[in-house]
């Protein structure tokens, strides 16, 4: 890591508060964003993994982020008085199995990919914000897109071999996050799950030069509208990323969840489309998907389970199905053991591997199946 950046961030802290962060079962905590000062947080998550792809053999490896994404983050918050606050968050994704960082993107296009050598970047989050109790929060920088939050909130696994990240098939560099963005969160809602009626919006720029048809490529506009009740959540979202070559990428989805006695039932439906068929995706212009999942509370732990189905409108009538099941067992407030098994069935021109992460495993032949498992440990701080 660049030592100048690290020490500059730490020097801002009047006191250093170590806090837990999480993005899993309700038992996992979040860093206290309402506390003044600067906090350092993170996740170290590694697993023993074995993935197989039909016609491509198998691969056995140590992988990162099987239950939660491994990361290192810094966040700060200051009260300005009159019910106003200012703050920032910098979060770096980590490949903890190799000690390297993850790629980021400078212009929301394929041409903006950076970090080919695994240097540390703040690829996950990099923003500053101004917040008013009465009018909400305004963010500037790199952040998650509103349409991604439904894929995260209503997926029982969220990361690892169980995650149904294949539903991003047909999206672009902004499937997860966007750079050069201006984001808005309605009052009382600065994360993916909120109570009452809430709204999230984002505008992002590709920042291209010139005056031809590609000048607007990488520009994004997105929104998310939802309602959180005492025992249920529902949200609808859409994001459009400008791209002259394919007539723009449009990502739309709706998801909901119902919880009772420690259990949580989740459903997600969505579509990714372009106006012009994409040659790299076998001429498809639309991918539709649906997913059902649950957290089943068992003693101190829980069983995540999900079933996803993806359908493309290409000439081969391609489709894929994914079934995943696991078990998550906490050893303490910060340390958790987990295991996940997943199986993917492809049809037509699809050849999706079992995992959609960086270490996805062998890619099967066209229409071939894939399977694999993670056995891992996660520690948060």
Question: What would your notes on this structure say?
Answer:
This protein has 381 residues and is mostly beta strands. Helix content is 4%, strand content 53%. The protein contains two helices and 21 strands. The strands form two sheets. A 16-stranded antiparallel barrel has the order 2-4-5-9-10-11-12-13-14-15-16-17-18-19-20-21. Strand 5 and strand 6 (100-101) form a beta hairpin.
Search tags:
single chain, 381 residues, mainly beta, 16-stranded antiparallel beta barrel, two-stranded antiparallel ribbon, 2 helices, 21 strands, 4% helix, globular, disordered N terminus
From the spread of the alpha carbons, the general shape counts as: globular
Q: Reading side by side through the largest sheet, how are the strands ordered? A: 2-4-5-9-10-11-12-13-14-15-16-17-18-19-20-21
What fraction of residues sit in β-strands?
over 45%
Radius of gyration: 20 Å
Helix residue percentage = under 10%
Q: What is the CA–CA distance across the termini? A: 19 Å
Helix count, per DSSP?
A: 2
